[in-house]
Design brief:
With about 140 residues, this protein is an all-beta fold. It has a single domain (about 20-140), classed as Immunoglobulin-like. It has strands spanning about 20-30, 30-40, 45-55, 60-70, 75-80, 85-90, 95-100, 100-105, 120-125, 130-140.
């Protein structure tokens, strides 16, 4: 799927709710700063997740970095290394959100080991269902 909205319509969100418009990442000190811009607001009820999927060029090594909201409040900030089947949870203080922008200050170690030629895309989920995937990411690393 490209960055467009999934055809699943029964996830409880209207067409314009929290549509992930743009994802930018940059390096600041030892952090990978991910800035998610959404069209609309974080849903005030239910679960909503924004994140990144980062992988080596051949997809043999994959990471999933995410920020989860429940009823409009950030509740989880994590990365998952598929190669190690290991999840690491971070201090929720690393998440900021204001209006339609969500910022996650992930430790750079979350993508440690991926080559310069890695692949990275954004995603969102609503109430446990894929909402969007394959959203292009602008990188400044």
């Amino acid at each position: 799927m490209d960055g467009s909205r999934s055809t699943e319509q029964d996830c409880g969100m209207s067409t314009n709710d929290a549509l992930l418009k743009q994802v930018n990442i940059s390096a600041e000190d030892d952090n990978l700063v991910a800035r998610f811009e959404i069209d609309g607001n974080i849903p005030g009820s239910g679960a909503y997740v924004v994140g990144l999927v980062a992988a080596s060029e051949d997809y043999s090594s994959q990471r999933r970095l995410g920020i989860e909201f429940m009823n409009g409040e950030a509740i989880s900030f994590y990365s998952f290394n598929h190669s190690l089947s290991a999840e690491e949870n971070y201090d929720i203080k690393g998440v900021e959100h204001s209006g339609n922008v969500i910022t996650g200050n992930f430790p750079m170690s979350a993508i440690h080991g991926l080559s310069k030629g890695h692949v990275m895309t954004g995603f969102s989920e609503a109430d446990g269902r894929e909402f969007q995937s394959g959203v292009p990411v602008t990188e400044a690393l």
